[in-house]
């Protein structure tokens, strides 16, 4: 099984190193970012299976980052880690789960595994509008192969 790719965002370098080591030991391929802006750049340049973000960061909060990420990829699992009791008890709609800072490591790992598993089991259904261009191409080929030779006769 391929390693799950995780993006961890926190303005504290110690926390970033902790995430990289901890999630790395649990089978994740971890990329870290020091800010929301850096996280967006990394998200756009590489494949990411899930995101863990701090709530309070300079420039862009974790909630703002989650909202931007969800606009780009609505099915992306995002876990918010916050010192705010309100954000933990009533997570914003843009995140899949919220944990308090200082939560046990096992709880964080289990929560991340759970949100990823939930997304894998609820794959986005195919939408017919995605196939409209293919139908147009096939119709064009049919016209060229079938109708055009008959017209030239």
3D structure, described in words:
The chain is α/β, with parallel strands linked by helices and 153 residues long. It has one domain: Response regulator (Rossmann fold, 3-Layer(aba) Sandwich), CATH 3.40.50. It contains 6 helices and 5 strands. The chain has a 5-stranded parallel beta sheet, sandwiched between helices. Strand 1, helix 1 and strand 2 form a beta-alpha-beta unit. Helix 2 runs parallel beside helix 3. The model has no long low-confidence stretch (mean pLDDT 83).
Q: What's the CATH architecture?
A: 3-Layer(aba) Sandwich
Shape: elongated
What fraction of residues sit in β-strands?
Answer: 15-25%
Overall pLDDT metric? 83
- Helix content, binned percent: 40-55%
Total number of β-strand segments?
5
